[in-house]
């Protein structure tokens, strides 16, 4: 048995052994092993929960069932309440591999809030609400979660009721679960049912995005590498450890309610793709898969630690691991992002949702003495792929909302210079199994007055330029409250489509977010502008633009290369575009698309321009 295998066995023995531990002072002992038994429910209760989205006048809803008996009906009905009566709008077959019932209703009227119910047989019924599209709201609230460990050893068995209560108190418009909804590598179905029992009361009444990550598909880390079969312990050779059938069941349960994939061609092992966009409340969300196409590092980069993906050599050359052919998002997703950033139909703001952020977002792993120079399980690697992703996303001033890192952070990313790309908010884990810290050896440069030394401009372990503004580092020796000393919690982002402000909130567990005395983690809340997602410090300003119509779409194109610099819907009737100095730009405008050219040689410091719709 090699050293890595011994480490893995020791780790899982620690996490899952059946000995008891004390939860919190004065509490009763708790078992380390989580209970994933599937309850034997009555026929009237065979529908566990339901998830839905509405996009482009299409409702997609997936009902999750408990196991059915052989003689039970294998169809389910979707009904809506109209004039006090229930009307059937769809019927579907229940897929026995995972017991899901996926519904689709086209020509959905998203201007109305509608009560729905899923029914089965003569007894079972599950009710919820399909909300109207909040296009008239100035502020869209998105609650974000990650890392739903249920193991008692670190507080994973503590009730989620505080999360349910807070979502209802802020009346979140959208729920975002960025990954690791399930933390059992062989029993996704049983753990998914528990997830539904824990969160179903809020999921049933609002659009929900779920992105399966590594633990969801049954492995400790994931480099999907377009569906290949992994044969290495830890899966660092790339691909999936579980059979394709298992992965397909996971993705069907967690993503079949999402809008249709924009490019549905399957990958290896007949595994599908789900990357797409969701337009809700005039916010256009790109739903990305940042692990599915990613290359595994084993055998491609020099091993410089006990694991192929962990670099513990502080003297290594970061450029040496940015190997030719290593993929992050892949060309198909990059093409999607390019199209998405240029399309502003019914959109005022752009948001990218993915499993994790585009940098190595932690220096210390597992325990306070676990400094790790670089982690190839992060989206800081491969660097070329990371930069391609950021370069594509900033063309639409996209804000990045993600999770996975077990550590809440705010970063402003840089490619060629600090702060020349998008901002990201990584939310904290619901229950934090594996601790991480953002603590660079050298204090960050250009810190804000009074800010902690770990903030400011730094290079991550792959020499990527990052500027940190907040990190909810856990205590060095967590004790007492096993949730908050381990920096557990959740995120809230408020998107103001009128002012174009983005406010990030990061809350500990078991607080009331409406209590004026409740405190967020240090560094939060923080508000930025939509335009901060692509406004490099070195840029200047073009001439002021005024319009005789509201909220135009503006696009800048490099006059020499013909490459799009950015496209954005601006607020109101006045806009001062930022752009690189010393270059000329073609400026295009329009009501819903940049279809009229108003300048072919616009430059920094140029003359004002007035644009008429006529």
Count of β-strands = 37
Q: Count of DSSP helices?
A: 6
Characterize the main sheet: 8 strands, mixed
Helix content: 10-25%
Overall residue-averaged pLDDT value: 93
The shape, in one word, is: globular
* Straight-line N-to-C gap: 75 Å
Structural class: alpha+beta
Q: Which stretches are low in confidence, meaning pLDDT under 50 for 5 or more residues running?
A: 1-30
Percent of residues in β-strands: 25-35%
Q: In which order are the strands of the major sheet placed?
A: 13-14-16-19-21-20-25-24
In angstroms, what is the radius of gyration?
24 Å
Write a short abstract of this structure.
The chain has about 625 residues and is α+β, with helices and mostly antiparallel strands.
Explain what you see.
- The strands form ten sheets. An eight-stranded mixed sheet has the order 13-14-16-19-21-20-25-24, covered by helices on one side. Strands 10, 11, 12, 22, 26, 27 and 28 form a seven-stranded mixed sheet that branches. It has a four-stranded antiparallel sheet with strand order 6-5-8-9, with no helix packed on it.
- 12% of the residues lie in helices and 30% in strands.
- By secondary structure, the chain is an alpha+beta fold.
- Helix 2 packs parallel to helix 3 (188-203) and helix 5 (331-342) packs parallel to helix 6.
């Amino acid at each position: 048995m090699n050293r890595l295998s011994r480490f893995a066995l020791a780790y899982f023995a620690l996490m899952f052994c059946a000995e008891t531990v004390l939860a919190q002072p004065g509490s009763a002992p708790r078992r380390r092993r989580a209970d994933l038994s599937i309850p034997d429910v009555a026929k009237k209760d065979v529908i566990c929960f339901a998830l839905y989205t509405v996009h482009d006048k299409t409702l997609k809803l997936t009902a999750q069932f408990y196991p059915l008996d052989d003689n039970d009906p294998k169809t389910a009905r979707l009904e809506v309440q109209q004039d006090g009566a229930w009307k059937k709008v769809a019927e579907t077959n229940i897929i026995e591999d995972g017991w899901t019932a996926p519904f689709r209703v086209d020509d959905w009227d998203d201007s109305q809030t509608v009560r729905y119910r899923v029914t089965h047989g003569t007894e079972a019924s599950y009710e919820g609400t399909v909300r109207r599209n909040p296009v008239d709201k100035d502020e869209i609230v998105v609650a974000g979660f990650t890392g739903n460990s249920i193991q008692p050893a670190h507080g994973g068995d503590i009730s989620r009721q505080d999360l349910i209560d807070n979502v209802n108190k802020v009346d979140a418009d959208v729920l975002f679960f960025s990954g690791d909804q399930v933390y059992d590598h062989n029993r996704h179905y049983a753990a998914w049912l528990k997830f539904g029992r824990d969160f179903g009361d809020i999921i049933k009444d609002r659009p929900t995005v779920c992105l399966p990550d590594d633990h969801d598909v049954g492995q400790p880390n994931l480099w999907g590498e377009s569906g290949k079969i992994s044969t290495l312990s830890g899966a660092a050779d790339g691909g999936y450890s579980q059979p394709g059938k298992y992965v397909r069941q996971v993705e069907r349960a967690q993503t079949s309610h999402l809008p249709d994939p924009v490019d549905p061609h399957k990958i290896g092992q007949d595994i599908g793709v789900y990357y797409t966009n969701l337009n809700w409340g005039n916010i256009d969300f790109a739903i990305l898969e940042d692990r599915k196409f990613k290359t595994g590092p084993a055998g491609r980069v020099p091993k410089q630690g006990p694991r192929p993906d962990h670099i513990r050599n502080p003297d290594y050359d970061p450029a040496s691991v940015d190997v030719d052919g290593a993929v992050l998002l892949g060309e198909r997703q990059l093409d999607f992002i390019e199209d998405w950033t240029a399309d502003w139909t019914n959109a005022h703001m752009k948001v990218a949702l993915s499993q994790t952020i585009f940098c190595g977002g932690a220096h210390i792993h597992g325990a306070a003495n676990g400094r790790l120079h670089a982690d190839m399980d992060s989206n800081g690697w491969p660097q070329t792929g990371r930069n391609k992703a950021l370069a594509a996303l900033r063309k639409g001033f996209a804000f990045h909302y993600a999770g996975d890192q077990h550590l809440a952070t705010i970063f402003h990313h840089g490619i060629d210079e600090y702060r020349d790309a998008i901002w990201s908010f990584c939310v904290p884990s619901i229950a934090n199994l594996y601790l991480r810290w953002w603590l660079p050896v050298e204090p960050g440069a250009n810190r804000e007055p009074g800010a902690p030394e770990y903030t400011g401009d730094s290079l991550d372990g792959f020499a990527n330029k990052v500027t940190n503004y907040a990190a909810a580092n856990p205590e060095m020796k967590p004790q007492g409250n096993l949730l908050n000393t381990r920096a557990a919690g959740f995120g809230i982002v408020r998107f103001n489509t009128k002012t174009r402000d983005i406010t990030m909130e990061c809350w500990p567990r078991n607080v009331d977010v409406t209590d004026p005395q409740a405190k967020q983690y240090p560094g939060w809340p923080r508000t930025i502008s939509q335009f901060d997602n692509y406004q490099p410090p070195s840029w200047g300003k073009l001439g002021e633009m005024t319009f005789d119509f509201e909220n135009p779409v503006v696009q800048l194109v490099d006059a020499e290369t013909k490459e799009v610099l950015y496209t954005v819907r601006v607020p109101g009737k006045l806009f001062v575009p930022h752009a690189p100095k010393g270059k000329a730009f073609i400026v295009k405008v329009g009501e819903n698309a940049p279809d009229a050219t108003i300048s072919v040689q616009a430059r920094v410091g140029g003359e004002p321009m007035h644009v008429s719709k006529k």
